[in-house]
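Deliverable D5.2: sample structural annotation.
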Amino acid sequence: MKNKFNIPFMKYRYILISISMVLFVASLVTIASKGFNYGIDFVGGAKVEYKFSARVSESEVRDSLGNLGLGDISVVRFGEKSDNMMSIKVALPKEHAAIGETITRALEARFGEGGVTLEKEETVGPKVGEELRKKAWLTILFSWALMLVYIGYRFDFLFAPGAVVGIIHDVVITIGLLALLGKEINLSILAALLTLIGYSINDTIVIFDRIRENESRVSPSTILNVVNESLNSTISRTLITSLTTMFVVLVLFFKGGGTLHDFALVLLVGIIVGTYSSLFVASPCYIAMYDVWPKLRRLWATR
């Protein structure tokens, strides 16, 4: 069956890879300079969420807690503005059994007893938070390693590095944006990143499977044409899958409320960069491996 598209993707592969490299390096610089805004899941502390009966500002809430001796206090509005919801995060004091009551009394003294309602309270010890943070990053690293092994076994070693490079590309750019926006990194964001990894690798495998179907025609002189044909024959499926998934995520992003907003943001960014990397990062890496691997084997054989 003749492809509906005949787009010379690989003709522009160096430009496309350059765009990815710029975004990747910019993300690393952002992460190094701004760091992550870890939630209490990963650093420990207390987090309480309040609903106010009237509109208040973050500075007013912060000022009302200034005399409690809680150290650095983070106050963030979330949800719709009309919801008047505030999230307050503090370091966990030694006597923390009644931290919610302490903060509630201070807010009621400023805004009135009927002016504020405690909606949610969470506390995590610092040692538990540090352990969870280490396990979170190890989970992502292990997922990359397992993908490398699986694709190397299921397909071919020439395919595996491109798939893993694409996943690393997606995760780093996504968390770079989270660092830039100052979004909180917590367990729900970790779940979103792992979901992103699964989504991205699925798109890449579909493209690689089509390349493998045409692998008998691959040679140094034909590889660019074969990869282009494979990309063009799968692009309809890739775009339709990405768009339909994006429609659902957009609903979560705009209507899911504060709890799901950041989760949906990660998936939304991930769908875009994941589709891009499947088309324009993983496939050029396969071509590079095809060109370089025989040379590396010959070099190793001469040692």
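Annotation notes: The chain has two domains: 9-39+128-301, 45-124. Residues 72 and 90 are 6 Å apart (CA to CA).
The annotation will be released with the project's public dataset once the embargo ends.
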